């Protein structure tokens, strides 16, 4: 499915309850399993729930918890970093990275999660294509954030007491831990050792969602 096709599929269900499209059984454990609402949105759009790099042929679907007015209530997961740690430490060109591929063409769908899941509402989406000139400033800031985070990670590995990476942030994106037991430490070939005791991931900060919603 192309991202533009997904926008057409979304239009009829904007400002409607999630329960209009999925069953109570399908919403089971949706509060505990944070990624479940995104999976259900993929199902509503007719996407296959697979481990492909992108949700669409030409872009990515992202959902996030917000209030009834669209204000973000959480940061938003982007991608895990265990397989790209050396790209980050080595400051691989931003526009050639896995992270840029994941965020360069986004369909952001906020979901108002006030009340029980049966009352959750799908709010108007925002399409963010970083190749669009109107997002030039955003793209530039994300590039700045990326290189800043790369340097923070390397500095943590080199000088922190435990020799591990720690939360590293820019204006719109950050890296922080994302793992559950049993933990999956991250190994760096550049340093020839483990550089974390658990997995970490990129996230959009709330500032990103506020920024794109105000354009």
SSE order and pairing:
Blueprint: H1 3-10, H2 36-45, E1 60-66, E2 76-80, H3 85-89, H4 98-103, E3 105-112, E4 121-122, E5 126-129, H5 136-159, E6 168-169, E7 173-177, E8 187-188, E9 193-194, E10 200-204, H6 206-213
Parallel strand pairs: 1-3
Antiparallel strand pairs: 2-10, 3-4, 3-5, 6-7, 7-10, 8-9
Helical content, roughly?
25-40%
Domain count: the total is 1
Structural class: alpha+beta
Beta-strand content: 15-25%
CATH-level-4 superfamily name:
DNA mismatch repair MutH/Restriction endonuclease, type II
CATH class category name = Alpha Beta
Query: Care to count the β-strands?
Result: 10
**What is the 3D form?**
globular
| The CATH architecture | 3-Layer(aba) Sandwich
Q: How would you characterize the overall build of this protein?
A:
With 215 residues, the chain is an alpha+beta fold. It has a single domain (3-213), classed as ECO RV Endonuclease, Chain A (3-Layer(aba) Sandwich), CATH 3.40.600. It has helices spanning 3-10, 36-45, 85-89, 98-103, 136-159, 206-213, and strands spanning 60-66, 76-80, 105-112, 121-122, 126-129, 168-169, 173-177, 187-188, 193-194, 200-204. The strands form three sheets. Strands 1, 3, 4 and 5 form a four-stranded mixed beta sheet that branches. A hairpin with a 4-residue loop joins strand 8 and strand 9.
